[in-house]
Design goal:
Layout: E1 6-8, E2 14-15, E3 51-53
Antiparallel strand pairs: 1-2, 1-3
Length: 56
């Protein structure tokens, strides 16, 4: 599993694969790469394409 976190370039929300997005139907432990393309940022509604990998 990829442990890389991704940041929304619109609102700066950080997707952490360890936490997932349970409210959005994404289970903890889900790598960003495995999230469906239809998923949107839970904070601002931006698309998955609006996220960038973070340098941890």
């Amino acid at each position: 599993m990829s442990k890389k976190r991704y940041r929304c370039t619109i609102c700066a929300y950080v997707y952490d694969p360890a936490a997932g997005d349970p409210d959005g139907g994404i289970a903890p432990g889900t790598a960003f790469e495995d999230i469906p393309e239809s998923w949107v940022c839970p904070e601002c509604g931006a698309t998955k394409a609006d996220f960038e990998a973070m340098d941890d």
